[in-house]
Amino acid sequence: MTTFQNLLTKLENRILTITVNRPDKLNALNKQTVQEIGKVIQQAKDDAEVKSIIITGAGTKSFVSGADINELVNLSIEQGKEMAQSGQDIFKTIEDCPKPVIAAVNGYALGGGCELAMACHLRVASSNAVFGQPEVKLGLISSYGGTQRLIQYVGKTKAVELHLTGDLISADEALRLGLVNYVTTQEQLIPKCLEILEKIKSKSPKAVGGVITAMNAFFISGVDGFKTEVNEFGKCFSSEDFKEGTSAFLEKRKPNFSGK
Ligand code: COA
User: Fold this and answer.
1) Number of domains in the chain
2) Are residues 188 and 225 in the same domain?
3) Ligand 1 centre and the CA of 67: distance in Å?
4) 82 belongs to the catalytic site
5) Same domain, yes or no: 181 and 232
6) 115 carries an active-site annotation
């Protein structure tokens, strides 16, 4: 896998861990980092050795503290729109990745950091994690899908409040609101992610990809999610995974899925 300037990558047990690595800036997302995230996700998607992905931040204080504010100060309207579009496209590749992606949120997940976590399929937070969309405090709004995805996770009532006030919330509050799947200690954060991914790893990769496609469709305007489910269900019948899964059940053995 490519060496990146602002990301660390580790492939172990077919699980790729991507660490945003700008700890002196609390892992703020500059343009280079966002582009590198796009590149590594594309590579992971195409790499048969990678079964699933964890995204986390370097150090114990911050997951990602948001877009790099230094790079925002002189942007024009057009450059601002370009930045938002490119970031949204890249985060969409995470959301659409057919391999499961978990955010291991190990501290601040603010602005673009909260948006990055929300683009992942699952979120596990350490108890020191802090979530929020504080862009209004800078005279901004979120730009990597935050106004759209937060509503999906916590409902409009709370999402509007968080975006309008810029209030930050604790990991426990994020759990209560349904923004994260689990809260753990710092030490248990990656082990908990691995535990979840191990469970998914024994399932059919084809079916896992189908679930992701069908569930994402619910939120795409103009796309009929029920129809997408019909299509994804139909596709299962041409897969080797389906034959293996049903044969294994009938033969009373564990399935061994090829992902084909
Ligand atoms: N962009 C650029 N630099 C950032 C950053 C960001 N989003 N978040 C943190 N940093 C930098 C700080 O400028 C500081 O750099 P310096 O040491 O060169 O001065 C370093 O990271 C440490 O941050 P600091 O503010 O000193 O840490 P803290 O513990 O006092 O506060 C936060 C932590 C996360 C509360 C605070 O850094 C913050 O509010 N960051 C901005 C969050 C935000 O608004 N995100 C949305 C951006 S659109």
Assistant:
1) 2
2) no
3) 10
4) no
5) no
6) yes
From the list 12, 115, 161, 240, the catalytic residue is 115
Token reading at 117 = 């976590």
Q: Are residues 103 and 212 both part of a single domain?
A: no
pLDDT score at 212: 97
Ligand 1 touching residue 28 (CB < 6 A): yes
- Mean pLDDT on 215-233: 94
Domain assignment present for residue 37? The answer is: yes
pLDDT in tens, 41-80: 999 999 999 999 999 999 999 999 999 999 999 999 999 9
> Does the model's pTM come out above 0.90?
yes
Domain ranges, residue 74? 7-201
Query: Looking at the structure, do residues 142 and 44 belong to the same domain, yes or no?
Result: yes
Q: Confidence class of residue 2 from pLDDT cuts 50, 70 and 90?
A: confident
Q: Ligand 1 test: best mutation among 30, 65, 137, 141, most atoms within 8 Å of CB?
A: 65
